[in-house]
Each structure stands twice: as structure tokens, then as C-alpha cells.
Design brief:
The complex is a heterodimer of chains A (286) and B (581). With 286 residues, chain A is α/β, with parallel strands linked by helices. Chain A contains nine helices and ten strands. Chain A has one domain: 3-Layer(aba) Sandwich (Rossmann fold), CATH 3.40.50.970. The mean pLDDT of chain A is 96. In chain B, the strands form three sheets. Chain B has an eight-stranded mixed sheet. In chain B, strands 9-8-10-11-13-12-19 form a seven-stranded mixed sheet, with helices on both faces. Chain B has a five-stranded mixed sheet with strand order 16-18-17-20-21, with helices on both faces. Classes of the chains: A alpha/beta (286), B alpha/beta (581).
């Protein structure tokens, strides 16, 4: 059986605004899965709440549009319970870095083998245009009519702080490039963070699209994603959105550590498997 | 022959080794086949501070913590004062106190026979260090009250063995010194004693351990939790044992995440559980609502403590009842069950997985600090011969033909729809915390919402038919009745049996499933009643209000309800019963 891009498509038509960056991300995800030939029934696509969190409904996978900010716990639960499943966690900047902000660094440090794709449009679109944790300082929105007075969070730096083992940035308008990043993220054994600059046509408009276009910079061959100091430096460069795989390291995944722990917890019992009833003996008095 | 039993307490400061002494004596009693019940109580300090334990041992099944102490062993008076509301002594109780205590006896021991025992002096002079005084006290108690001592010796050898033979010898010598002293000096003291024939050893468990063990027994292989008193022992037990059965335990970054992981694991096809206490329950409420709407089988344990907010982390209460039944926005059907003793913690957990998996619904286990942290002897064979409905079940995998035109949330007569999970070819579906139709497609159409809300709640019809277990005590035609729930069972049952023995006709029921309540059975119990007493550890009387919302209660309905801090005592219930007779 060969899987094609439409095999990953559900019967639902996206409700996103025409021109939304999320269409490009949805396409790239489907293409990446087709490229890797993952059977749709072996994929779980999980999200929280927001415009971009509607994405799972458009996938012909096991898809779960959960509650605001909880994409990572639920996706982690799926992966830890079922390591054989390919788990995609998707959502927006508000879902991931505001209400769900506590989960991101922890999934990263655990190195749970999921691919977390954040569509960053620097705004709350679904609730009609309030500031998000990645909105620029001084930006005017309907909840910051005099300009935002909060410095934005830096998601890539946050990923470093959380010890993410794969950190990449893509752009919703460059689907082939993004497809490759997502495919590399899925292949990566461990927590893969793919931040996607994905403009909001309605609340960012042409100005945001032009701004993003002027800011993106493709990382060249000279970039060494295994050099952590250099990689972190790249994310700190002002006035640019570096595109590509920024950082990558191989270290044991959560599941590998669980398996190792299970081995250590179960010393050999001369071939007789431990029975649940045996545990009662531990409750007998000395 | 009347049962032989003894209820005694030990009180002291942190360094006195009160809990060590209590644990050793309980282990020893269980080893000789005695039934045991041990409740600990302590101040909030991590180390040091006051601590106490109350132990009831008997050659017959122990129903509750007991009422009044026959014997109190005190290392000093100060700590007795700190626990004075929890210490009630029989009229002829004997109080053993360290001779080193020179102060005036407190009110709590007034009128009782006080016997000064030089435990610090014996420890210092004969063993060479005052810190062995808890071992001396063990020796004194064991000799004076005829408590089993062999198990204490064995425990000391085993537990202190790795500290070297000197340490073992010193501790054994301290116990012997205490025994010799008691033999020579206390023989004439009229102290309560235990007379019994040794029998098969009993296993000892806490309620939290029984829940954790029950989860493994029920096939749960995924647990996520966050440390919280008084539920943490569940996390700790499972962290040690679950990996040995191929399971995973995750200590999540917060309570919300733990609940989310459980939802994810169950969505992925695994039986999953989380446990917490009140503050964590408040945080998990978000996820419980999602599990209700997305129909995710899940088991959530709440080991209740005094609340609201941080409340008293170390003390029991039954005031999370309304939160368990109604907590979450929207109409969110879930099942609430309550364990009534340690053995029941096991049964109820196995049952919860059965309900959760069969009906695709979250199940809340309402335990509490009293049942969760106390140590009780459990009949090993009885534990494993769980009654019919608590059979271990597997989540039903849909047949191939059910996957043609598959609707995850098919509106069936029972309200239960076929559920697939990742890996099942052709079973893919999308679901959401958003109101969705039978396919799982998001919808804001009112008719869809009405239909699906009805489908989810319809599960209650079958659940109510299948699960109606209630405990009943006393004659069924009695016109005076008691009702309570969860860990209040012991004191209620013992009050009824005592009243019956005194010639009063009184009955009681304790439902195991709190929501949906087995209404027919409770209505049958209420039918002959002229007077009803609702017993609960809740200031506002949450259970009474809940019963009133569902059933016609007798005109003369009384309430034993007060805030937590300690469990209901038999006397509290019995005295009220006598008042209303």
C-alpha cells in the first residue's frame, strides 16, 4: 500500500480565513507523512485550542482537538502509552507559550518522542485579535490599544532551556522547506520542536506577511546544528527569523529510558514471570 | 467467647520514635494473625513535631478505629495536650508515662490511673542512649498488655540488620529491659490485656496501597501523578511496582498535565489512572470535563483532605463530595465511587476500571486521608475473591464490520459507542472537547448538542442497573436508620451493631456508588423509617443536601455533620442516636 497526500485528508474543509498561513502548514504535515509513508491509522494528531488547533480535524488520523494549552500533556500521554504511534502535537503561540507554557519545557527535557509544530502568528486569532505571548512590544491590538507593554517570549530560546533535542524553524509560505523540516522532526528520535512563522491574514494583514517575508533567513550549509553554542547564538540574532534545523542532538528518548527502567525494576526471576498476586507477599509482616 | 481486643495509643515528639514503635507493634500483631487498625496523626512539620498513633488489635475483624483508648503510652505531657481532642480514654484506662516527665498531668488523663515508667532512665542506664526509649516502651507495652513481641524482634533484626549486629543487639536489649521492668513492677497494675490464639499472618495495607495495588490488578499500566499529601503513596507504590509489569509511571510537571497524560494514554488504548487530593482535584477538573465530553475512560482518585484551598493537608474530611459529583462546567456525566475501608479501596479501584472501560466515562474514586493512610489488616483470600461486578475487563475492540461507515460517537440505545484507538486500520476518527456529532466532527448546532448530551447521560441507565452495591446493617424493618458514605462506614456500622446489641432496632446503609446513587435500594431502606440520621465529615452537610435532591427523606431527619480533622467517632454517632430515640 502506498500512501498519498489525500490519504491524510479528512472530509472536513478547514474553516480558516482564506490566505491564512495554517493552510501551508497543514499541507506540509500531510506531505511529510506521505513522504515517510506512515499509515494514517498509526498517526495521532493532537492539539489544544486556537485557530491552528483546528488542524487535527482536517487529518484522516486519530485526531484529538483537546482543551486550551493541554496539547503537550495529552500528546505525551499518547506517545508514552503507545510508543509505536507517530504523534504530532500542533497549536498556536498562545496555546503553547501562554496558557500551556508550563508543559513545553517539561516535554522537551523528558525527550518524549513527539513532533511539536507551533504555528506562530503573534496574535490570538480565534478570539479576534488580542496580544499573544509572542506579540512584539508596542504592538497595538484590541487588548493593547496603546501598544503592548510586555516583552515577547522567545520560543526557540525556551526550547533550548528545556533541553529540546531538535529545534527547527519554518515558514508557512515555503511548503517544500517546511515539509522537510516536519519530516526530519518526525524521524528525529526525541522531542522535535518546529516553530512555524505563520501569518494571520485577518489581524496581521499584509503588513505582517511583508514583515515575515523580510525577516526570514535560510540557514546555509555552514550552519552546524550539532554545535549547541552556535545554534543558540543563531536564535538570538535580532532582526531575523533563521529557517532550517537550528539544533539537533541524539540522546535517549523517554521511551528508551522507560524500557531501561523497566528492565532494572524487573530482575530476572528464573524465567517465571512475576504475577500480580505475588505483590501481596510484600504486605505480609516480617 | 467474647472477642479479645485492645485499643491503645502512643504519643510523643518527632524524635521519640512513636510511629516506629506503633508500626513494629502492628506488624507483630498481624504476624500472629490478629486483626489490626492503625491511624497516625501528626503535626505539619517535615521532621520533629508531635506525632501520635492509635492502634486497635483484636482476634476478630476490626470495624473501625475504635472509640476510647484502653491504654495510652506517653513520652511527655505536652504532646498529649496537643492531641487532647483526639484522645479519649475509657474510665479505667491506664496511662503509662515516662518518669522523666515532671509536669502536672493534663486534663485529658484526669481521673485515670497514671503509671510512671522510667523509660528514659532505663534506656540511658542499661542501653547507653536515651534514644532507645521507644524500644523500651515497646517492651513495657508488650509485656503489660500481652501484645505479640516475636514479630517486633524479627522486624528489628531485619530492618536494622544492615546497621550491624551491635545496633540490633542494643535494640533487642532495650525491648527486653522494658519487658523486665514491666514484669517486675507492673504485674499488679489492672491494665487491659489481649488474650488470643496465634493464627495465620494477616497482610497489612494502607488504603492508598490498596488503591495502587488494585490499579495494577485491574490492568492499569499507565499512571501519571503529582506529589500531594495525602495521596502521594499511590504514586510512590506504583513508581516502584508498575514498571515490573511493563507499565509506566510519570511524575508530571503539574496536576493538569497528569490528568492530560491519562486522557492521552486512554485515547491511545491503555487503562490509565491519576490520583490527587483536593487542590489537585480543582486543577484536574478541566481535564475531567474533557474526559466527560470526549468519552475517555479514566480513573481519578481523590484522597480527600480538609479544605478548601490548601486546608489541612494531613487531616481527613468528606467535603469534596459535591465537587466530585458536580465539579466542571456544563453537564458532565461521570461516576463517583467511595471506598469504605482499606479492603474496599482495592474493590472500588478494580470496579472503577470496569466501569470506566465499559461505559467510556471518567470515574472518580473518593477516598480520604483516614482510609488512605491508615494501616489495616486485610484478608488475602478475601481481597482476591472480589464480587462479580468487579471483574477485570478489557476495552472492547470494534469488529471489522463496525468500521464500515464508522461513527465513533454513534447514538446507540445504551449511549455507549464503539471505540477504536491508534493502530486500528480504518478506525481513525477525530474528536474534540468541542461539541461534536456522531462522527466526532465539531458542531455548534443546537440539535446536535441536545442529542449528544442525551447520549452521554443515557449511560447512567445501564450503570444504575448494573452497579447498585450498598452495604446494609441491622434489621430491615427498623424505623430508625443511619446513612453515610465512604470512610464513615466503620463508625456507623459499629454504632448500629452496638445499638442492636443494646436492644435498639436501628439499621444503616452505606452506598458504594455515590453517583449515580442506587436510588431504588435507598428508597427501600427509607420506606420503613420514621427517623433518619445522615452521618458525614462535612460542615455544610453535603451528603444530606445531595440525598434531599434525589429522595424524600423522613420528616425527622437529623444530621451528624461537622468539619474534618478527624474521622467520625463511634460515640459521636451513637450519642446522637440515643438523643433522637
Amino acid at each position: 500500500m502506498v500512501f498519498k497526500v489525500p490519504d491524510y485528508k479528512s472530509h472536513l474543509k478547514p474553516i480558516w480565513c482564506p490566505g491564512c498561513g495554517n493552510y501551508g502548514v497543514l499541507n506540509a504535515i500531510r506531505k511529510a507523512l506521505a513522504e515517510l509513508q506512515v499509515p494514517p491509522w498509526d498517526v495521532a494528531t493532537i492539539s489544544g485550542i486556537g485557530c491552528s488547533s483546528r488542524l487535527p480535524g482536517y487529518m484522516n488520523t486519530y485526531s484529538f482537538n483537546t482543551v486550551h494549552g493541554r496539547v503537550i500533556p495529552i500528546a505525551s500521554g499518547v506517545k508514552i502509552a503507545r510508543p509505536d504511534v507517530t504523534v504530532l502535537a500542533v497549536g498556536g503561540d498562545g496555546d503553547g507559550f501562554a496558557i500551556g507554557g508550563n508543559h513545553f519545557p517539561h516535554a522537551a527535557r523528558r525527550n518524549v518522542d513527539i513532533t511539536y509544530i507551533v504555528m506562530d502568528n503573534n496574535i490570538y486569532g480565534l478570539t479576534k485579535g488580542q496580544t499573544s505571548p509572542t506579540t512584539d512590544l508596542d504592538m497595538r491590538t484590541i487588548s493593547s490599544p496603546y501598544g503592548s507593554i510586555e516583552a515577547p517570549v522567545r520560543p526557540l530560546a525556551l526550547a533550548f532551556a528545556g533541553q529540546a533535542s531538535f529545534i527547527a524553524q519554518g515558514y508557512s509560505s515555503d511548503i517544500p522547506h517546511l515539509t522537510n523540516l516536519i519530516a526530519e522532526g518526525i524521524k528525529h528520535p526525541g522531542f522535535a520542536f518546529v516553530l512555524v512563522k505563520s501569518p494571520c491574514i485577518t489581524y496581521g494583514g499584509k503588513a505582517q506577511i511583508d514583515h515575515m517575508k523580510s525577516m526570514v533567513r535560510y540557514l546555509g550549509d555552514e550552519h552546524d546544528p550539532t554545535n549547541r553554542d552556535h545554534a543558540f547564538h543563531v536564535t538570538e540574532e535580532a532582526g531575523a527569523y533563521p529557517l532550517g534545523i537550528i539544533y539537533k542532538e541524539i540522546r535517549p528518548t523517554y521511551t528508551e529510558r522507560v524500557r531501561d527502567l523497566q528492565m532494572r525494576a524487573s530482575p530476572p526471576t528464573d524465567g517465571i514471570p512475576l504475577q500480580v498476586e505475588d505483590l501481596l507477599d510484600n504486605f505480609l509482616p516480617e | 467467647m467474647a472477642p479479645s481486643e485492645l485499643t491503645f495509643g502512643i504519643v510523643g515528639s518527632g524524635g521519640d520514635g512513636v510511629l516506629t514503635a506503633g508500626n513494629l507493634l502492628v506488624q507483630s500483631a498481624a504476624r500472629d494473625g490478629l486483626y489490626c487498625f492503625m491511624v497516625k496523626s501528626f503535626g505539619p512539620q517535615i521532621r520533629g513535631g508531635e506525632s501520635s498513633c492509635r492502634i486497635r488489635v483484636s482476634d476478630e475483624q476490626v470495624l473501625s478505629q475504635g472509640d476510647k483508648l484502653d491504654v495510652l503510652a506517653a513520652f511527655n505531657w505536652n504532646d498529649v495536650v496537643r492531641f487532647q481532642t483526639e484522645i479519649r480514654l475509657t474510665d479505667d484506662a491506664v496511662v503509662l508515662v515516662d518518669e522523666a516527665e515532671e509536669g502536672e498531668p493534663p486534663e485529658a488523663v484526669e481521673g485515670r490511673r497514671i503509671v510512671k515508667v522510667p523509660i528514659s532512665a532505663i534506656s540511658q542506664e542499661q542501653i547507653g542512649a536515651v534514644r532507645s526509649k521507644n524500644m523500651v516502651m515497646i517492651g513495657v507495652l508488650a509485656e503489660a498488655c500481652h501484645l505479640p513481641i516475636e514479630g517486633v524482634r524479627r522486624s528489628v533484626e531485619k530492618k536494622l540488620g544492615r546497621k550491624g549486629p551491635d545496633v540490633v543487639a542494643k535494640n533487642l536489649a532495650a525491648i527486653e529491659a522494658g519487658r523486665s521492668y514491666a514484669k517486675e513492677n507492673l504485674a499488679d497494675v489492672p491494665i487491659a490485656t489481649l488474650e488470643y490464639e496465634p493464627s495465620e499472618p494477616k497482610i497489612l495495607m494502607t488504603g492508598n496501597e490498596a488503591v495502587a495495588y488494585g490499579a495494577i490488578y485491574a490492568g492499569c499500566r499507565f499512571y501519571a501523578g503529582y506529589p500531594i499529601t495525602p495521596a502521594t503513596e499511590i504514586l510512590q507504590y506504583l513508581a516502584r511496582e508498575m514498571p515490573r509489569f511493563g507499565g509506566v509511571v510519570v511524575q508530571a510537571e503539574d496536576e493538569i498535565s497528569a490528568m492530560g497524560m491519562v486522557i492521552g494514554a486512554s485515547f491511545a488504548g491503555k487503562k490509565a489512572m491519576t490520583a490527587t487530593s483536593g487542590p489537585g482535584m480543582s486543577l484536574k477538573t478541566e481535564g475531567i470535563g474533557l474526559a466527560c465530553l470526549a468519552e475517555i475512560p479514566s480513573v481519578i482518585v481523590n484522597v480527600q483532605r480538609a479544605g478548601p484551598s490548601t486546608g489541612i493537608p494531613t487531616k481527613t474530611e468528606q467535603a469534596d463530595l459535591q465537587q466530585a459529583i458536580y465539579g466542571t462546567h456544563g453537564d458532565a456525566p461521570r461516576v463517583v465511587v467511595a471506598p469504605s475501608d482499606v479492603e474496599d479501596c482495592f474493590d472500588v479501584t478494580v470496579e472503577s476500571f470496569y466501569i470506566a472501560e465499559k461505559y467510556q466515562i471518567p470515574v472518580i474514586i473518593l477516598s480520604d486521608q483516614f482510609v488512605g493512610q491508615r494501616i489495616e489488616s486485610v484478608n488475602r483470600d478475601g481481597l482476591l475473591s472480589v464480587s462479580g461486578f468487579t471483574a477485570v475487563n478489557k476495552r472492547r475492540k470494534p469488529h471489522r464490520d463496525e468500521l464500515d461507515d464508522y461513527k465513533r460517537f454513534k447514538d446507540t440505545p445504551s449511549g455507549v459507542s464503539p471505540m477504536t484507538w491508534p493502530g486500528i486500520e480504518g478506525g481513525q476518527y477525530a474528536t474534540a472537547g468541542i461539541v461534536h456529532d456522531e462522527n466526532g466532527d465539531p458542531s455548534s448546532v443546537m440539535e446536535v448538542h441536545w442529542k449528544m448530551a442525551g447520549k452521554r447521560s443515557r449511560k447512567f441507565e445501564d450503570i444504575s442497573k448494573e452497579l447498585q452495591f450498598i452495604r446494609h446493617y441491622g434489621p430491615e424493618d427498623a424505623e430508625i436508620g443511619l446513612i453515610g458514605w465512604g470512610s464513615s462506614k466503620g463508625a456507623i456500622k459499629e454504632s448500629v451493631l452496638r445499638a442492636n446489641a443494646e436492644g435498639y432496632k436501628v439499621q444503616a446503609v452505606i452506598p458504594q456508588i455515590i453517583y449515580p446513587l442506587p436510588q431504588e435500594k435507598i428508597a427501600a431502606f427509607l420506606a420503613p423509617l420514621k427517623k433518619l440520621v445522615v452521618c458525614e465529615v462535612s460542615f455544610s452537610g453535603q451528603f444530606l443536601h445531595y440525598l434531599r435532591s434525589l429522595l424524600d427523606l423522613p420528616k425527622e431527619t437529623y444530621s451528624v455533620s461537622r468539619p474534618g480533622g478527624m474521622p467520625l467517632a463511634i460515640a459521636e454517632i451513637y450519642d446522637r442516636l440515643m438523643e433522637i430515640m
